[in-house]
Design brief:
The complex is a heterodimer of chains A (115) and B (108). Chain A contains no helices and eleven strands. Helix content of chain A is 0%, strand content 49%. With 115 residues, chain A is an all-beta fold. In chain B, the strands form two sheets. In chain B, strands 2, 4, 5, 9, 10 and 11 form a six-stranded mixed sheet that branches. Chain B has a five-stranded antiparallel sheet with strand order 1-3-8-7-6, with no helix packed on it. The chains are: A mainly beta (115), B mainly beta (108).
Chain lengths: 115, 108
């Protein structure tokens, strides 16, 4: 059973460009979570999605950031008009959510660098 | 929201030494995990331990949920143990809060 997959692993963008980060959950998991880790800090929750639904986006910046988890295909975290402060590692996690407290399994992360 | 504090923030060990990392949280939790983030940034799940004690090789962890703390023990440390150790708690429904981390450096 493959783990959570994220791609690309490293992404370089210039200020003003768009960044698209992809996350494929573990097989059988229908719940996806995105976290952001700024340099020298811990991970901070951004958004929780089920297929075709955003459940909790309380950690998402109000502008330029969006997330989706379509019926088919990976979850996408999209950052429009990137700025230097968006440089961070973005981690995705997935869960089967058979129980409300099910463990979340984390992917390897995408490291975004904004020049 | 839940506050998660880890101590110490930084730790330098001689190879072979033992250490204890602490995680304190401000409210009752449904789940608690310990992670190791290696120097390449990869996040490795060490323990899922909402309560009780678990051991895995040179590592063990204990969570006392009623006292709102968890401890991670590293024995006979090795240079490959270097990195940042995070405690992460799940309070509300699937809402995970990470601690501030303990940065460990093991020197030969």
């Amino acid at each position: 059973n493959a783990g959570v997959m994220q791609n690309p692993r490293h992404l370089v963008r210039r200020r003003g460009q768009e960044a698209r980060l992809r996350c494929s959950p573990m097989k059988g998991h229908s719940h996806v979570y995105w976290y952001r880790q700024l340099p020298e800090e811990g991970l901070k929750f951004m958004v929780y999605l089920q297929k075709e639904n955003i459940i909790d986006e309380s950690g998402m910046p109000k502008e330029r950031f969006s997330a989706e988890f379509p019926k088919e295909g990976p979850s996408i975290l999209r950052i429009q008009q990137v700025v230097r402060g968006d440089s961070a590692a973005y981690f995705c996690a997935s869960s089967p959510l058979r129980e409300p407290t099910d463990t979340q399994y984390f992917g390897p992360g995408t490291r975004l660098t904004v020049l | 929201g839940i506050q998660v504090e880890q101590s110490p923030p930084d730790l330098i060990l001689q190879e072979g030494a033992n250490s204890t990392l602490q995680c304190n949280f401000s409210d009752s939790v449904n789940n608690l995990q310990w992670f190791h983030q290696n120097p390449w940034g990869q996040l490795i799940n060490l323990f899922y331990i909402p309560s009780g004690t678990k051991q895995n090789g040179r590592l063990s962890a204990t969570t006392v949920a009623t006292e709102r703390y968890s401890l991670l023990y590293i024995s006979s440390s090795q240079t490959t143990d270097s990195g940042v150790y995070f405690c992460a708690v799940m309070g509300g429904y699937q809402k995970v809060t990470f601690g501030t981390g303990t940065k460990l450096q093991v020197i030969p």
